[in-house]
Design brief:
By secondary structure, this protein is α+β, with helices and mostly antiparallel strands. It contains 8 helices and 10 strands. It starts with 14 loop residues before the first strand and ends in a 16-residue tail after the last helix.
């Protein structure tokens, strides 16, 4: 099936569209800005993706070239590269180009980040009221946990970490909770790639000790960081899982040692487990079988 080219809104400052009579689209070239630090090929490829996103029925190469202001040969080279990375798909029966599956996974990652923050906020507020210390939300990314949300508690004199800060997974309670939900093979790969750099004198620095710690976390369902990330700071965390049961985020409470005494770890850990499970459920996550409760009253 062939489709008639259709005029679409301009998506790049480098090109403008004008009418060329019924059923046709002509292009006028506008000088592109120079020296702005952009990569022209990448900009053009993204422009093609934006065009494909306008209509789910797909586009012929000639239509994409006309609407983007690119030559057919340039558009085809860019589309072929995008197809190899699964960002676009080519239907050989209809000769139409479509948005690919990889676009969905990338977009879903952004949506997941936004949604997880919205789901977590009420529970973070509740935990702050219960513990009076700071509550944090972190996402796993490339061997780190990234702080993406924080509510400061009255017992915390300063922010635990700036939003956007990255900490190695082994060096913080949130990261350790995520590592504990990984397979032994995945943990071994983490060690191979990242090692165990020290953040403080208390940071886990031996693989054997890390494995012991992760076994403890699996039994209890929560992780405890006692000055491993920062001196004078204690954190307790539990993991958040996606629809496949995979850990992708974690929730923690953090504060000075006097505000998080050791005798309260179990009770706070249970509250974190419950809050993390509620967030996971709201996200459509699949939870593992719960471990026996050892909660103590605060």
């Amino acid at each position: 099936m062939h489709r008639s080219p259709r005029p679409l809104p301009t998506l790049s400052a480098g090109h403008a569209l004008k009418s060329a009579g019924p059923g046709r689209v002509a292009r006028t070239q506008v000088p592109e800005p120079a020296g702005d630090g952009t990569v022209q090929a990448l900009d053009r490829a993204l422009q093609l993706l934006e065009l494909l996103a306008v209509d789910s029925e797909g586009y012929r190469l000639v239509d994409l070239a006309a609407c983007s202001g690119l030559s057919a040969s340039t558009a085809h080279r860019l589309l072929t590269t995008l197809e190899q990375r699964r960002f676009v798909q080519f239907d050989r029966d209809t000769s139409l180009w479509h948005v690919g599956a990889r676009c969905f996974s990338v977009g879903a990652a952004f949506a997941r980040r936004r949604r997880i923050q919205e789901l977590a906020l009420p529970l973070m507020r509740r935990l702050r009221e219960q513990t009076r210390v700071s509550v944090n939300l972190g996402l796993a990314d490339a061997g780190d946990v990234v702080f993406v949300g924080q509510l400061k508690g009255p017992e915390s004199s300063e922010a635990v970490a700036e939003l956007g800060r990255r900490v190695p997974l082994h060096g913080a309670a949130m990261g350790q909770a995520i590592l504990a939900a990984w397979s032994e093979q995945e943990v071994a790969e983490y060690l191979r790639r990242h090692g165990l750099p020290r953040l403080t004198a208390h940071t886990v620095a031996r693989p054997s000790r890390l494995h012991e710690l992760l076994a403890d976390i699996r039994r209890s369902g929560y992780a405890v960081d006692d000055e491993q990330n920062a001196l004078g700071l204690r954190c307790i965390a539990a993991t958040i899982r996606d629809e496949h049961g995979q850990p992708f985020a974690a929730l923690s409470v953090a504060g000075p040692s006097h505000a998080l005494p050791t005798h309260a770890f179990a009770a706070i850990g249970e509250r974190l487990r419950a809050a993390s499970a509620e967030i996971s459920a709201g996200f459509g996550g699949c939870l593992p079988e719960p471990a026996p409760s050892t909660a103590m009253a605060l």
